[in-house]
C-alpha cells in the first residue's frame, strides 16, 4: 500500500467513526446543526471513498487505451466531490429552514459540544496529514479530501460555539434555540463556498489548463540555462493532468549540430525540468535556426 492509498484509508476510517458519533449526538440532542454536521461527514466519507478509488486508479501505468496515463481520474474525483458537497449543503439548508419554522427543544447539549470538539480535533489532525501527503505526492484527490476535512474542522467548531451559546443562555433563563438552525445555515454557506472553489480547482485541468505562471517561468529559465548553444525556443505549451505536467516546445539549434549532440541537449533539458517538476513529461521539437543567405552583391 503506497502513501496516497494509506492516507485515503485513514480518511475513510476517521470519517466512519465521526459519522457514528455525530448521528448519535444529533438525534439524542435534537440539534439540527449536529445532524447537519453528520450529513457533512457522510459526504466526507463518500469523498474519501472516491479519493481512495482515484489515487489507486491514477497510479496505474499507461496502457493501450490510455497512453497518457490515468492521472486525470483525480481531477474527475475532485469534481464529483465538489458536487456532493453542494448537494449536502442544500440538504442542510432545507433542514435548518424547517427547524426555524417548527422549532423544537435541544437536549444533551453538553454531549453535543463534546462530540463537536472531538470531531474538530480529529479532523484537524487527519486534514493536516492529508495535506502533507497531497503536497508531497501532488495528489488532487487527496488535496480535495483534505479540504473537506478542513471545512469540517471549522464547521464543527462553529456548531460547538453555537451550542455553547444556547447552553449559556439557558443558565440565565434565556432561550437561544434559534441559534442552532442559524449556525447550520452558516455551515451550509461555508460548505457551498468550499465546494465552488474545489470545483474550479479540479475542473480546470480537465480542459487542459496550463501550468502556473511560476512553473512556466521556471521552465523557460531552465531551457535557457541548459542550452546556451540554442538560438532560442518558442511555442512553449503545458497542461496539467493530476500530478502530471505535460510540457512541449520548439528548440532552435545550429544546423551544423549533429543529431547526437541535439539529442544530448534535449536529454539535459528534460532532466533539469524533471528535477524541479518530478512528474513532468517533456516533449521537445528540434528545428534548425534559419541562416541568413548572403546577398547577391556580397557574392559578386
Strand content: 5-15%
Integer count of domains: 2
Query: In whole angstroms, how far apart are the ends?
Result: 75 Å
The largest beta-sheet arranges its strands as 1-2-3
Level-2 CATH architecture of the largest domain:
Up-down Bundle
Low-confidence stretches: none
Helix content: 55-70%
Please state the structural category.
mainly alpha
- Outline type: elongated
GO biological process, one term: intracellular zinc ion homeostasis
GO molecular function, one term: cadmium ion transmembrane transporter activity
Family: Belongs to the cation diffusion facilitator (CDF) transporter (TC 2.A.4) family. FieF subfamily.
Domain Cation efflux protein transmembrane: 9-206
Structure, explained:
With 300 residues, the protein is mainly α. It has helices at 3-29, 32-58, 73-101, 109-137, 140-171, 179-203, 213-226, 259-276, 296-299, and strands at residues 232-241, 244-253, 280-288. The protein folds into two domains: 3-207, Alpha-lytic protease prodomain-like, CATH 1.20.1510; 213-288, 2-Layer Sandwich (Alpha-Beta Plaits). α2 (32-58) packs antiparallel against α3, α3 (73-101) runs parallel beside α5 (140-171) and α7 runs antiparallel to α8. Residues 9-206 form the Cation efflux protein transmembrane domain.
Amino acid at each position: 500500500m503506497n502513501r496516497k492509498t494509506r492516507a485515503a484509508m485513514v480518511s475513510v476510517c476517521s470519517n466512519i467513526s465521526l459519522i457514528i458519533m455525530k448521528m448519535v449526538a444529533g438525534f439524542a440532542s435534537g440539534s439540527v446543526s449536529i445532524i447537519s454536521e453528520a450529513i457533512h461527514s457522510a459526504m466526507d466519507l463518500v469523498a474519501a471513498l472516491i479519493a481512495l478509488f482515484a489515487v489507486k486508479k491514477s497510479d496505474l501505468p499507461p496502457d493501450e487505451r490510455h497512453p497518457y496515463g490515468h492521472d486525470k481520474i483525480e481531477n474527475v474525483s475532485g469534481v464529483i466531490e465538489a458536487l456532493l458537497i453542494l448537494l449536502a449543503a442544500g440538504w442542510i439548508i432545507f433542514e435548518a429552514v424547517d427547524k426555524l419554522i417548527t422549532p423544537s427543544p435541544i437536549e444533551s447539549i453538553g454531549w453535543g459540544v463534546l462530540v463537536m470538539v472531538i470531531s474538530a480535533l480529529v479532523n484537524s489532525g487527519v486534514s493536516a496529514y492529508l495535506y502533507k501527503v497531497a503536497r508531497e505526492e501532488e495528489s488532487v484527490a487527496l488535496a480535495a479530501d483534505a479540504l473537506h476535512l478542513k471545512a469540517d474542522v471549522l464547521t464543527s467548531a462553529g456548531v460547538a460555539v453555537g451550542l455553547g451559546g444556547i447552553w449559556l443562555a439557558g443558565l440565565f433563563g434565556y432561550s437561544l434555540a434559534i441559534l442552532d438552525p442559524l449556525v447550520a445555515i452558516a455551515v451550509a454557506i461555508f460548505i457551498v463556498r468550499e465546494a465552488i472553489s474545489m470545483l474550479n480547482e479540479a475542473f480546470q485541468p480537465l480542459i487542459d489548463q496550463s501550468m502556473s505562471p511560476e512553473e512556466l517561468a521556471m521552465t523557460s529559465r531552465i531551457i535557457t540555462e541548459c542550452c546556451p548553444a540554442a538560438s532560442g525556443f518558442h511555442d512553449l505549451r503545458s497542461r496539467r493532468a493530476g500530478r502530471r505536467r505535460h510540457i512541449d516546445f520548439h528548440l532552435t539549434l545550429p544546423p551544423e549540430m549533429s543529431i547526437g549532440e541535439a539529442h544530448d541537449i534535449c536529454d539535459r533539458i528534460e532532466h533539469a525540468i524533471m528535477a524541479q517538476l518530478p512528474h513532468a513529461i517533456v516533449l521537445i521539437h528540434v528545428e534548425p535556426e534559419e541562416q541568413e543567405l548572403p546577398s547577391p552583391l556580397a557574392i559578386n
